[in-house]
Write a structure and sequence with these properties.
- Helices cover about 40% and strands about 10% of the residues.
- The protein contains 12 helices and 10 strands.
- The chain has helices spanning about 30-40, 55-65, 95-110, 125-140, 155-165, 190-195, 225-230, 230-235, 240-255, 260-270, 285-290, 300-305, and strands at about 5, 10-15, 15-20, 45-50, 75-80, 115-120, 145-150, 170-175, 200, 275-280.
- The strands form 2 sheets. It has an 8-stranded parallel sheet. The chain has a two-stranded antiparallel sheet with strand order 1-2.
- Strand 8 (about 170-175), helix 6 and strand 9 (about 200) form a beta-alpha-beta unit.
- The longest helix has 16 residues, at about 240-255.
- It starts with a strand and ends in an 18-residue tail after the last helix.
- The mean pLDDT is about 95.
Length: about 325
């Protein structure tokens, strides 16, 4: 396993991060423990969670797993997404943040979180309120660093500016979606992260499993997120994505790599990415992601993979200025 510094934090994390969204859902306690142990054996010290994963069950399971090695790990969680159907169960308000953090710490059986993410931008709560509240929980020692997930680049930049002006702790890490068929992050988010030295742990490196080799123009997997999860079906429903999946699987076979390993490796190869977040239902799936660290992508293969999908236009739309 390789390790690198997470932005400007000074802490070192493994070049792969284990996502726990399947804990308590597709993976029961036994399978979750098996995947956790598999990651630890491979040298992974970075685990990403959220309060909404299995409506808290993922945090509870992860809390049991990290009990005897907490100080060796970098553990994250998130708040802001709906936790139930009641009033005031979502958003970036100070009230919701405080309640969410206390609940997450209890479920995770820990005194602190290494990184606490705002799961999504809250248009109804002043950003100043959220950032001040986050600064307070850092000062209290309950959170070491803060970050954001699913933010647009302008929202990240605005937050950094607000924090700087007020002397509050800034975002140190961002969590965008990024894979071969979802490349919007290349336009502004990843360049911003490089410029500001932010850690980047990107999710969906396998595009919800579509780049795993299970899907194609004439075949569908019997089970998986794209067959059971309406959110992923909406996200990756376009026919051109399936066409790319077929070409990618063939390219992986021609290169003697498993498509999962190659998909994760391609994401990790971007200079702004600190660690792709791996997702898996079982240890069998997880092993292919872990093997991505053994791939040394040549510039030729990296570019060849990238040419399977159109690169997004530059932020200014001046395509003529793009370096070839």
């Amino acid at each position: 396993m390789k390790y690198s510094y997470l932005g400007k934090t000074g802490i070192q994390v493994s070049c792969l991060c284990m996502g726990t969204m399947t804990f308590g859902r597709e993976a029961d306690k036994g399978e979750s423990r098996a995947m956790f142990n598999c990651c630890r054996d491979a040298g992974v010290n970075f685990f990403d969670c959220a309060n909404v994963y299995s409506q808290g069950a993922a945090e509870t399971i992860l809390g049991e797993l990290i009990a005897d090695c907490r100080q060796e790990l970098v553990v994250t969680s998130k708040f802001g997404s709906p936790m139930g159907d009641g009033l005031n169960t979502a958003g970036g308000s100070r009230r919701h943040l405080a309640a969410s953090l206390e609940a997450s710490l209890k479920r995770l059986n820990t005194d602190y979180l290494d990184i606490y993410f705002l799961h999504r931008f809250d248009e109804l709560t002043p950003l100043e309120e959220t950032l001040r509240a986050l600064d307070d929980v850092v000062a209290q020692g309950k959170v070491r660093y803060i970050g954001c997930s699913n933010f647009a680049a302008w929202q990240i930049a605005k937050a950094l500016g607000v924090s700087a002006i007020n002397g509050w702790t800034p975002f140190h890490c961002v969590q965008p979606m990024y894979n071969l068929v979802k490349r919007q992050a290349e336009v502004e988010i990843l360049p911003l992260a490089e410029a500001e030295n932010l850690g980047v742990i990107s999710y969906n490196p396998m595009a919800g499993g579509i780049l795993s080799g299970k899907y194609g123009a004439d075949r569908q997997a019997d089970q998986g997120r794209l067959t059971t999860d309406t959110m992923y079906q909406k996200r990756y429903h376009d026919q051109w994505i399936y066409d790319v999946a077929v070409k990618f699987s063939q390219l992986a076979a021609d290169s003697s790599y498993h498509p999962v390993s190659l998909a994760v490796s391609w994401v990790a190869h971007h200079p702004a990415v600190t660690a792709p977040i791996m997702g898996a239902r079982n240890t069998g799936q997880l092993q292919d992601s872990l093997k991505s660290v053994d791939i040394e992508l040549s510039p030729n293969l990296y570019e060849k993979i990238g040419r399977l999908t159109p690169a997004p236009p530059p932020a200014t739309d001046r395509s003529e200025d793009r370096q070839v």
